[in-house]
Amino acid sequence: MGAADGMNYAPQGKPRPVCQPGEFVIAAVGLDHGHIYGMVNGLTEAGAEVKWVYDPDPSRVARFLKAYPGAQAASSEDEVLDDPQVRLVAGAAITSKRAALGMRVMDHGKDYFTDKAPFTTLSQLQAAKAKVAETGLKYQVYYSERLHVESAVFAGQLIEEGVIGRVIQVMGTGPHRLNAGSRPAWFFQKEHYGGILCDIGSHQIEQILAFTGGQDATLTMSRVANYDHPEYPELEDFGEASLVMDNGSSGYFRVDWFTPDGLRTWGDGRTFILGTKGFIELRKYIDIARDLEGSHLYLANQEGEWHLPVHGKVGYPFFGQLILDCLNRTEVAMTQEHAFKAAELCLIAERDAAGGDGRYARS
Q1: Does the pLDDT of residue 146 top 60, yes or no?
Q2: Would you tell me which of 34, 53, 253, 353 could form a disulfide with 224, CB atoms 3.0–4.6 Å apart?
């Protein structure tokens, strides 16, 4: 799973197929980010069959085939896109190239599932909206810090049940370990990674929308900085933002690249959810100095207080729901509007951030 390395963090769950063998065929195109393994794990555990993989780098293809020996190496992207059996293409291309890949996928009549962040510019977002409207196909996004974390999944279920009342604030922290020596060159080029609020900030904004039930939000503050990496002048190693939802709830998050080497996992990601009748804290990846296993949920409400370690007990329903959405043309896993709104807000936060120049998200 790569507990020390967020770029290759790929959770594995229990097989919970929602379709018959061969009913939902997928392909992987663009292996620039290790999140492709988490994406494909989730889909295959839910019953998808991965038929093809394509990437111009043979070493990345070889690694993928070792993980998924039932797949075939395609000779070109067109070989994948021209296959009528393929229903969905999953991709984790360079961030700035994800939108263009999505356009090609949908032009071939297939749904698209991309790693976050799905865009680096607002013009890419507008093009994707137009393509979805034109084709009726899906442009779905792997917001893994909510969708692929069991404590976050369980928190969403508790919120829906009203266990903490109405959610009035969500605060998130998304620290990551830089591991600079293992990162590709594009990771340090803002034109390609989009900025820290666009990149890892997209997880935070998406979960704030999801947990508060907001449909839209206003950014009240955003800020970025490079505090300690002058050798990478385009890297933003710190970012923060505040939002007010259209339902009156608020959100704040901080993201950074300062996970210390002494921490046993790639980041002590936490979420704090305040409701009118209680609160929830998520310790997603580690219970620091106590338990390396993640997915700890702490809950207090009018009836008491609980520590609920839910690793291996909740599962990841998003992936099965996504498969069924593609087969049935429904929107249970995540609405297209929600996926795009989270992307839009992180682009605006990056564009308008104090300490940033706003060049990349604007056009």
Answers
A1: yes
A2: 353
pTM of the full structure: 0.95
Q: What is the DSSP secondary structure assignment for residue 180, as one 8-state letter?
A: G
Q: Are 172 and 131 in contact (CB under 8 A)?
A: no
Taking a C-beta distance cutoff of 8 angstroms, is the pair 174, 203 a contact?
yes
- The CA-atom distances, in angstroms, between 107 and each of 115, 133, 164, 332 are 19, 12, 44, 24
Query: What ranges make up the beta strands (E) of 257-315?
Result: 270-275, 278-283, 296-301, 304-309
Structure tokens at 204: 């935070």
Res 13: pLDDT: 82
Q: Which residue has the tokens 């507008």?
A: 126
Count of beta carbons in the 10 Å neighbourhood of residue 109 = 13
- Whether residue 14 is predicted with pLDDT greater than 90 in this model: the reply is no
pLDDT at 362 over 50: no
Q: Which domains does the chain have, with CATH numbers?
A: 6-145+319-331 (3.40.50.720), 148-316+348-362 (3.30.360.10)
